[in-house]
Amino acid sequence: MPINYYIFLAIILFCIGVTGVLTRRNAIIIFMCIELMLNSVNLLLVAFSKMHHARALAAGAANTTAGIEAQLFVFFIMVVAAAEVAVGLAIIVMMYRNTHSVDINFLNRLKN
Amino acid sequence: MSNLSQLAWLVPIFPLIGFLINGLGRNYLSKTLVGIIGSGALLLSFITSVLIFNKVSAGELLIGEAGVYFDFIKFGSFNIPFAFQIDQLTSIFLLVITGVGFLIHVYSTSYMHEETKAHFARYFAYLNLFVFSMLLLVMGANYVIMFIGWEGVGLCSYLLIGYWFKNNDYTNAAKKAFVMNRIGDLGFLIAIFYLIQHFGTTTYIDIFSQAKTEGSSSLITIITLCLFVGAMGKSAQLPLYTWLPDAMAGPTPVSALIHAATMVTAGIYMIARSNVLYALAPSTMSLVAIVGLLTAVFAASIALKQNDIKKVLAYSTVSQLGYMFLGLGVGAFTGAVFHVMTHAFFKALLFLGAGSVIHAMHHQQDMRHYGGLKKYMPVTNITMLIGCLAIAGIPPFSGFFSKDEILIAAYAANPIYYVIGLFGALMTAFYMFRMYTMTFLGGFRGDHHHLPHESPKPMTFALVVLAILAAVAGFIGLPELFTHNPEGHKLANYLAPVFKDGEALLAKHAHPDHTTEWILLAVSVGLIVAVILWAVKTYKVYKLENDAEPQGFSKILANKWYVDEIYDAVIIKPILAIGDFFGKVIETKGIDKAVNGVGKAINFGSRKFRYLQSGNVGNYILIMIVAIIILVRILFYLPMS
């Protein structure tokens, strides 16, 4: 499959994520949208990694490792994202306990 | 360190100590103690000066390296040492300053006795500080030390003119003196800068020896002109003389010491000291002579119509200083210094006598209310008469010899100088005897319930000593005409080593032969005597009732040629107008508007930008995304360098 498809898919996912973050007020949904953006980037990384690898092979380098770093990055990002989700959800839980709401517009006390 | 250098620093240190004690202890010391400390410091200085004079007469001098005490300003190869130079010229000035200064201190203990304790001590502190500065001025071995003393005497002059600082007119007079002097000082400073730039030193002997080998140049002319501007300010010459008559606002002994006997002669000292430089700049010399001559006649004409006794003396001082500059300008350096000396005696005497009269008349200074004081104040009368005869130039009193020496030298240079100078001398005789007659002769015109009385002992003591000096001081400078001996002029012989370089460089004017000189002498003395008799006759019958408002030319003279008014209109008013313009238009409309505008713009902007800080996270993120998109767009269009 051409790389374009992957890029378009990633852009669409990313834009959905951005729109979600901008428009929704529910903290959990915003959180999910952020994850969506993160994973769209992961998808891009993997796609480009595969592309570079294929190119290197096509250029005649037999046992090439070109583009392999991005796949490692993706795993790394996934691990960090998992930790982040744990922290983020914990914050949301604490927020719910304090305010009985997950509406982020409720949390504007820094204003003024 | 020679013996003389150990002695020299004592001379200024005594008045400095006196200044510190009196100045710091003004609230604690009794008046008697203050008087003793103040006068005692001067007496010690005077004794030291006499010792120095003896050593100098014996041929011991303090010149060059021997006079260096410490390095004052030093950077790189350039060095201004704190050094004294004691030669014949300095030793004469030391004697005059400390001697006359001492007498005036003694006089002041009595004259200022009505002041409160703290003010009395303040007065003596200032007076001592003045003497200290003046000594520094004449003792310094380079122009920078001279400049320090120069500024010091200017400061003390300011402080003492404004001594009665509660009177607004007096403080204005003090300010005027200060500003006028500053104008002159600027010239002096520029001259010092030129000297440093060209000669790389400010020490007299180095500069003079270097200048002598280099010969005259336009730079020397510029330097001497700048120095002369300084002298004009300090010695009250045209056009910077107007501060001196106003300086009479100070206590009378101050007028005697600072504005007659010593400080105003600083300009003469400076030019006499720089005689080598001046001899190399003939055009400056002629300018000095012309300015001096004009000042002499101009001030004398004003003095003819003044009614304030101190104003008469003030203008007479300006006029006599003009004669000294005339002497310097025609190359008669000795004559100028001689006149400084005799003038110090008789003018201090006249001022102190005037002070004695003012004291007796309860601070009435208007001569129209005097008259017939001869009967009440015998000592003051006799001493004042001697002073008047001396300044008028009647032989054998001192003023005759010194003024004659200058006039003869002026005749040798240019007979026109002599004629104008003689005209001024006649006016001098007239106004001095107008003053004398209005004050001492005729009938008493004052308040008959408060009859005047003779002044106390310390005042008459000073008067008598000065009168003796004014009478006999002329004999140290007898002209060759009388003695038929070129060595007869003691002062000239004594000062010869100081002036020989300068005089050698000058074009020699043929000294008039003896017959001419006799004729000139006889003419001048005859005319002066006639003028004196005329003045006495006119003003002996002076009556307050007959006094009409001056008309025509005498009105111009009575109003001092309207010089103050002209200065006011030409210089002061425009400056004030410019200041007003800058203050009201540029400052308020321009600078203030700009500064306030910046503040207002920031205030307004921040009020508007505040709404961005809504606290709504969604908004923040939206702004962030929009900004990122814009940045990315910009990045695409920018060349990737």
TrEMBL record, chain A:
The gene is nuoK. This is NADH-quinone oxidoreductase subunit K. It catalyses: a quinone + NADH + 5 H(+)(in) = a quinol + NAD(+) + 4 H(+)(out). The keyword Repeat does not apply. Pfam families: Oxidored_q2. GO terms for molecular function: NADH dehydrogenase (quinone) (non-electrogenic) activity. PANTHER family: NADH DEHYDROGENASE SUBUNIT 4L-RELATED, NADH-UBIQUINONE OXIDOREDUCTASE SUBUNIT ND4L. It is found in: Cell membrane; Membrane. NCBIfam families: PRK05715.1-2. The chain crosses the membrane at residues 6-22, 29-48, 72-96. It is a multi-pass membrane protein. Keywords: Cell membrane, Membrane, NAD, Oxidoreductase, Quinone, Translocase, Transmembrane, Transmembrane helix, Transport. It comes from the Bacteria. The lineage of its organism: Bacteria, Pseudomonadati, Bacteroidota, Chitinophagia, Chitinophagales. Belongs to the complex I subunit 4L family. Its EC number is 7.1.1.-. NDH-1 is composed of 14 different subunits. Subunits NuoA, H, J, K, L, M, N constitute the membrane sector of the complex.
UniProtKB/TrEMBL annotation, chain B:
Its main location: membrane. The keyword Signal does not apply. It comes from the Bacteria. The keyword Lyase does not apply. Residues 142-428 form the NADH:quinone oxidoreductase/Mrp antiporter transmembrane domain. It is a multi-pass membrane protein. Keywords: Membrane, Transmembrane, Transmembrane helix. PANTHER family: NADH-UBIQUINONE OXIDOREDUCTASE CHAIN 5. This is NADH-quinone oxidoreductase subunit L. It comes from Polluticaenibacter yanchengensis.
